[in-house]
RNA sequence: GCGGCGAUGGUCUAGUGGUAGGACCUGAGCCUUCCAAGCUCAUGGCCCGGGUUCAAAUCCCGGUCGCCGCACCA
């Protein structure tokens, strides 16, 4: 079986049975936007619930829902307006597109070319005789096009207030940090989670659910004090993880290694205890939702591919190819230690306070150099620059109190030097008592791509076996964990006559009352109906037959083994619940 | 965005300058006492726009979408 047929089988099933399909096909379709059909929407919801259960509820974190649209200044602060902006230059000869900033960096001494204006980049390209990396044609004079990966919109009438669809859900959390820290009563650590849509106007999205322009993220921003907060590493110490470190990637013969979380931390393979902790937690969670852990690894980002905010980052990757085919690794989660980047940036750009006041165990007394400039002197002397000079003096006092040892002190304001007599600066050294300090929390961020997880789970649970009586006959079955299955139990009458259909309806209703997602089907042969449910991953099928009318028992059939057990209708809700929870199996009944 | 290839019922497909056929699925009926049985019937289709032509689903152009390669995926 080739890679193609595996993916094709999945997309065919997804379309036919309502898991996912391209949107707006009636109007020709649109690239990068998908619909979750009835089965897919429920599957995705169940997957998100499983995520909530593990990463919010069990961790004691909180969940919020922030808007999809946020105003421009948010993204100036976050760095997305610049950092998300690609400058593309096209080769007139071979037609290849290149990142203008990248080829400038490669051909000149310039670093961080990303932050240079487009017109300047065009000049630099011309002056340095930069050529096309693909074919060597001169690129001088070629236009450099701006391509921002964010969807832009306007807020309210007119264009004076630009807004953007968020390119990651994380900013919705960072921006609200001042209020969230109030909610957390100013105490670190605390975690804020969000499941929601994010938008990236990809140049060329492909591969269905794997690369979308609108996609769902489940993100956790865990705010910690880097000095005092430590993760509960012990709880995941023995979890085995497959790690593909940067060093192993750089080594030609490098292979991923299996280590316990504890070993990984001790050997320094994973630099951050926090990241290591979440790798351990996530490992167990992936297993729980049906990811095939033989086709899974954690891969460290190489230093070149680190995002603008990330200090260290590991991706969870799943291979969605068919066995035997070339591996097709897709990123399903990013684990980033974002440091204090985001909160610091928002603190600089926004009016609010993005720090936490950390109280000392005991107040401390420190000597502090302060100034109290005599503005009645500075004003007449320096005119409009007086205020700036005053601020410069304050900065200087904090930085270097020896500057005030002489009779005059000199400060620099925008390149101009100003000499001020020390006596006019109000310089003094005082003892002050400090109860604590403001610290900017660090952020640990596990960021899950929900759509890719849905895709991976489907790809890893879609199986074909020969459970049919006729050995030539393949059975298509999704071995979804019962927790995720869109339908938990299907109820069939063996025949749709002699009152069996009515009885089946009663049984189905009873299971619905008990809170289960129930399907009913009376059409076609019983075998056909089992197969229909197998295809959408329904773990249990209940069949009402003639014995049911006699003694009130039904058969329960297990999806994966096709084994059956006979159960009294009265016990059914409890039996299904136990089966779903894994507390019993069909064989035990 | 560029280049190559492609687009036919819900799905998978056959096919020709004279407006389409199959398989599966789905629905109805018959039959059937537990794993895609059988029979009868039915629903349903040539991506969009323009051009050439007596006639276009077929040929040409453009668009949209898909796949592959390049680039991109922070």
Would you mind describing this structure in some detail?
The protein is an alpha+beta fold and 589 residues long. It binds one RNA strand of 74 nucleotides through helix 1, strand 5, strand 6 and helix 17.
Short key terms for the protein model shown above:
589 residues, alpha+beta, BirA Bifunctional Protein, domain 2, Signal recognition particle alu RNA binding heterodimer, srp9/1, five-stranded mixed sheet, 19 helices, 28 strands, 28% strand, elongated, RNA-binding
Name of the level-1 CATH class of the largest domain: Alpha Beta
Helical element count?
19
Instruction: Please state the second-level CATH architecture of the largest domain.
Output: 2-Layer Sandwich
What name is given to the CATH topology of the largest domain? BirA Bifunctional Protein, domain 2
Termini separation (Å)?
A: 37 Å
The low-pLDDT segments are: none
Sheet with the most strands, sense and barrel status:
9 strands, mixed
Counting DSSP E segments of at least 2 residues, the number of strands comes to 28
Q: Give the helix proportion (percent range).
A: 25-40%
Instruction: Kindly estimate the percentage of residues that lie in beta strands according to DSSP.
Output: 25-35%
Q: What is the radius of gyration computed over CA atoms, rounded to a whole number of angstroms? A: 31 Å
- Structural class by secondary-structure content: alpha+beta
Secondary-structure map with pairings?
Blueprint lengths: L2 H15 L2 E3 L11 E3 L1 H20 L4 E2 L5 E3 H7 L1 H4 L1 E6 L6 E3 H8 L10 H10 L16 E5 L3 E3 L7 E4 L4 H6 L1 H7 L6 E10 L14 E11 L15 E5 L1 H5 L6 E4 H6 L6 H16 L7 E5 L11 E8 L9 E11 L1 H9 L6 E15 L4 H8 L3 H14 L8 E6 L2 E6 L6 E12 L2 E8 H12 E4 L9 E4 L10 E5 L6 H14 L4 E3 L5 H10 L4 E5 L1 H6 L1 E6 L5 E5 L3 H9 L9
Parallel strand pairs: 3-10, 12-14, 24-25, 24-26
Antiparallel strand pairs: 1-2, 4-9, 5-6, 5-7, 8-9, 10-11, 11-21, 12-13, 14-15, 15-16, 16-21, 17-20, 18-19, 22-23, 26-27, 27-28
Helix pairs in contact: 2-15, 3-12, 13-14
The protein binds one RNA strand of 74 nucleotides through helix 1, strand 5, strand 6 and helix 17.
